[in-house]
Every structure is written in C-alpha cells, then in structure tokens.
Amino acid sequence: MKTSRGSWSFLAFLSSALCCPAQADEAVLTGLYAPTPLVAQGPVTTEQDRWGRFSVTDETVRMELLKQGQAQLMPEAREPTLGEWRAEEAARQAGLGVWNDDCCKLLKASGKIPLGQWRVVQGLVHSVSIRREVAFVNFAADWKTDFTLILKPALAKKLKIENWQGRTLQVRGWTEWYYGPAIRVDVASQIRLPAAGK
Fold first, then answer.
1. Average pLDDT, whole number, for the chain?
2. Can you tell me the distance from the alpha carbon of 55 to that of 75, in angstroms, rounded to the nearest whole number?
3. Which of 93, 128, 143, 173 is deepest in the core (most CB within 10 A)?
4. What average pLDDT score do residues 3-12 get?
C-alpha cells in the first residue's frame, strides 16, 4: 500500500496462534519477529514467503524496530549483526514493546512454555546428551517433562554443548512437544550466552 507521502509501507500477517493468541494481526519480517501489526517505511519486497514474512532491506528500519522493542530477531532467516543483538537486548532489559507483553516476553525454562509459538526462553542447563542421530540439552532432571533443546549431532559438536552443563543459556525458536516443551536448534545463532545477572 502507499502512504499519503507516496512512500511504500507494508503490513504482514501471520496466524495469531504463533505468538500472541489475544491479537488477531501479527507481522513477521524476514529476520525479525514482530507480534503486533507494524507499518514500516523503506524498501521491501512485494512477495511473502511461506510464513507470511516480507524482506526488509532497509537497515535503519530494522534497527529502529529492534530499539523500540517492536520486533525480535529470527536468526534462522539471516545472521543478525552485533548491533542488532545489542539493540534487541537493550530493549529487552528496558522492558520495551513486546518484551513487556505476555505474548513474547522472555520465558524461564523452568516455567510454562506455550507450544506452537515463536518464543525466547532462558534457563540453567541441567544435562546434555549427544547420540548418533540427535543431541539434547535438558533444563531439568526429568527429561521426559522438562524444557529441552534438540540439535543435530554435527551442530551440537560444533557448539561444544558438552561444556554447557551448569551454564545459563538463552534460546529462541518455534516451540513444540517432545517429551515436554522443546525448541529445535538449526543454526548456532539461535543460542545466546547471556552475561551474568542478565
């Protein structure tokens, strides 16, 4: 659509079941997850991908959304820059935008994890296990019910998950059920090691 000033804007929609059940409209931008309808100015594609996302090529727009807490980084779409990580983290610590909303705020691995949603979860790693076909990172003693990360063995070895026991991790991705709530980690940048006390 065109604005009154003639510049292009966009509004992308995604099923409300993914992040904010109480909101009917959700916007998802390539590399960003924005759970509220957003109208952004700048160069964008006119086609959506299979998840309803538009590609935002204007770095200024991306950074502004992150600084305002109006979007979360989606590393599987593209590798975030250090500046983008810092902007998002500053917004999270300040409780801005979606970081202060039940739909998308940082969740504790020991708490209730909703399924079928894009979420950011943080917790203390209890144990890790690398098997022939799959690797697991568990956040409690009972692996049949706790929050778990699922990785391919090659990625697990690259990330050296055997060193994660007793460390606090932050992970983001789509939640699912696998003997308890879980997130599949497909790229290394889905995992963050927050600074102490953050």
1. 75
2. 14
3. 173
4. 26
What secondary structure letter does DSSP report for 195?
Answer: P
The two tokens of residue 18 are: 């993914």
Distance between CA 84 and CA 66 in Å, rounded?
Answer: 7
Nearest of 139, 166, 165, 141 to residue 150 by alpha carbon: 139
For 46, the token pair is: 């006119």
Q: Are strands 148-151 and 181-185 parallel, antiparallel or unpaired?
A: parallel
Which residues, other chains included, contact 86 with Cβ-Cβ below 8 Å and sequence gap of 6+?
A: none
Two tokens, residue 178: 């696998």
Residue 29 CA to residue 78 CA, distance in Å, equals: 11
CA–CA separation, 113 vs 181, rounded Å?
6
Say what the pTM is: 0.75
Distance between CA 66 and CA 162 in Å, rounded?
Answer: 32
Per-residue pLDDT at 39: 40
> What is the tens place of the pLDDT at every residue in 70-128?
888 888 767 888 998 999 999 999 999 889 988 889 999 999 999 988 899 999 999 99
Domains of the chain with CATH codes = 9-100 (no CATH), 107-192 (2.40.50.140)
User: Are 67 and 91 spatial neighbours (Cβ–Cβ below 8 Å)?
Assistant: yes
For 81-102, b/e burial (b = at least 16 CB within 10 A) is eeebeebbbebbeeeebbbebe
